[in-house]
Amino acid sequence: MLISTRGRYALRVLTDMAEHDGGGYLPLKEVAARQGISEKYLESVLKVLVRSGILTGMRGKGGGYRLALPPGECTVGQVLRLTEETLAPVACLEPEAAPCPRSAQCRTLAMWQGLDKVIGEYLDGITIGDLIDGK
What we know:
135 residues; mainly alpha; Tscrpt_reg_Rrf2; WH_DNA-bd_sf; DNA-binding
């Protein structure tokens, strides 16, 4: 499992927005400048977060983006599942994977399932609020 720039940027942007939350909308341009991310690329990342309900967006003057959830209610696991194709450590555990014909005799399947569970529980146990607090 390798987390892409899309997933990493989503987490950076969410922590930035939580830290600069004044109750209003934050312009994309400001967030992109603070994080050193291209506005165009950032816009594609934010669209995913808006569609999922993590962010809300508003166009026009005074528009931008803001958190739709409190930072303590948005988990890293939730964000990475939206931005990454998979968090599974092996292909046979991916959500859309066809049943493996070798699973009945696979000596390593239980180990991979255990690792997948540990990864999920760990990432689901960390919130954007925790990242801001340095936990």
